[in-house]
Specification:
Layout (H helix, E strand, L loop, with lengths): L4 E3 L3 H23 L5 H32 L4 E3 L1
Antiparallel strand pairs: 1-2
Length: 78
Amino acid sequence: MGAEIKIYQSLWKNLLLVICCVIFAIGAIFIIADDSCKTMTKVCGGWLGVIFFGGGGLFICVTTFYNSIRHIPYLILK
């Protein structure tokens, strides 16, 4: 049979994704800090945006660096 092919995550593509998540999280922080926004907008657009994009960006960053340090492939084709 053929050899297995290991596919690794792209560090640069994931770094771009993390940067985009950070930009959206900063935008959500601006929504929270705005005094003219309604409470529902602050909760839905602000806090949920910070939790989703901030947490998602942090998760992607940590898993990417962990997998690259440990040389863990993203996908193995047999």
